[in-house]
Structure formats: C-alpha cells, structure tokens
Amino acid sequence: FGRAIGLSRRRVAAWRGRADVRGALCLIRAARGEDPSAEVRGAIDDFAAALEIVPGDLELRRRRGTLYAALERWGDAVADFEEARRRDPFGPDPCLESWVACLGHLERDPARGAKWGLLRGELFLCNGADSTARAELERGLAWLSERLSGGAGAGEPEAELRSAAGRAHFSLARAYGRAGPASIDKAFRHLDESVRHGWMDAARAETEP
Questions:
Q1: pLDDT tens column, 111-144
Q2: pTM for the structure as a whole
Q3: Cα–Cα distance between 24 and 47 in angstroms, integer?
C-alpha cells in the first residue's frame, strides 16, 4: 500500500487499504497486550488523506470517528459523526451507538447534552425502548424549541436547528404511534410539527430519484 500511495497520492483505495491493514495490526497488538495507539493514529492519518480526496465518503468519515473514539478524542469523534449526519441526514446511522457514547463524555456542555438526549432517544427507539425514547426526545426537543424561540445562537444556524427539531418530532411521532390508540393524537401532533419544520419535505426530496 505504501508503494501504491507513492505512485499516486490521489488513490483513495491505497489510503483505505493501508488504514485497514493498520486496523488489523491494532487487533493483533491488543491481543498481545501491546499498546495499539500508534497504529490507530496512523490509520486516522490515512483516513484523513483519503477524505481530502473524497470528503463526501461517509464510511471513511465514520470509521475515522470510531478511531478517534478509541483514542478517547471524544470531540474529534463527535465532529466526524455529526458531519456524516449533516451530509446524509435521512439515512441509517451505523455509528449511532458510538456517537451517543462519545457525547456522554461531553454532556457537561448544554448543547452537547441536548444532542445527547436526542440521539439517545433515537437509539432507544431503534432498540424498542419506546417510553425511554420519548423521555429523551422530549428533553432534547425542549432545548431545541427554546433555542428556536430565542433565535439561533453563535454557530447554530437556524436551518440546522429546525432540521434537528423536525427529526425529533418525527421520531416522537413514531414512538407515540407505537404506544397504542391512547397516544395517537400525540403521534399526529408531532407528525404535523415535523411537517411544519420542513423535515418531511426535505426527507422526501432526499430519497426521491
């Protein structure tokens, strides 16, 4: 892989391949009781080089985020997971559990705490724990609503806040919809709010051919 990279530094497959080799070496070193952090850092550098060529490759970005988490670089890991979600806000998120765990280490920041609640809600919803999902989503949504009513703060574009709120309302609609007939009105209310925030239209536009 080093030779392939030397021949052309624009070959994404070569960077990806060397990162995979380094990942395998990490497992071997860990099994031997050795410190794998040098290989992890090398793999991060390889993914970074590949992402300079194809910044929209979500798999590369999420894998680098997972490696950052392995080094307990929680902020860097969260940045990669968030960028992947920003680039594909409506697709499945295979790193959701890792993202939640990383945000848990940063929860002292109110903004991170709100995102942590929203993502935990999504994770609980995926795992079928609907009542816990509703509580987490409602907590995060309350924070988002407060930010929207007071105007977006620095580094918080209103469009991103509205998108996050729309997604939260949609997830709550799913959670209440699965709670049975007694909660159907709440499900429809959250579905209406999701539409009002423009999230459903955006999702439709993203998924239509």
A1: 666 777 788 888 888 877 788 888 888 888 888 8
A2: 0.71
A3: 15
Tokens linked to 172 = 């709550």
Q: Supply the angle between the helices 199-207 and 184-196 in degrees, to the nearest 10.
A: 70
Non-local CB neighbours of 95 within 8 Å, separated by 6+ positions: 62, 65, 66, 81, 84
φ, ψ at 54 (rounded to 5°)? -130, 75
Helix boundaries (H) for the chain: 2-7, 12-31, 37-53, 58-70, 74-87, 96-105, 110-126, 130-150, 158-177, 184-196, 199-207
Q: 171 near 125, Cβ under 8 Å? A: yes
d(CA 172, CA 183): 11
**Cα 209 from Cα 53, distance rounded (Å):** 26
- Cα–Cα dist 132/11, whole Å: 45
* Cα atoms in the 13 Å half-sphere on the side-chain side of 21: 10
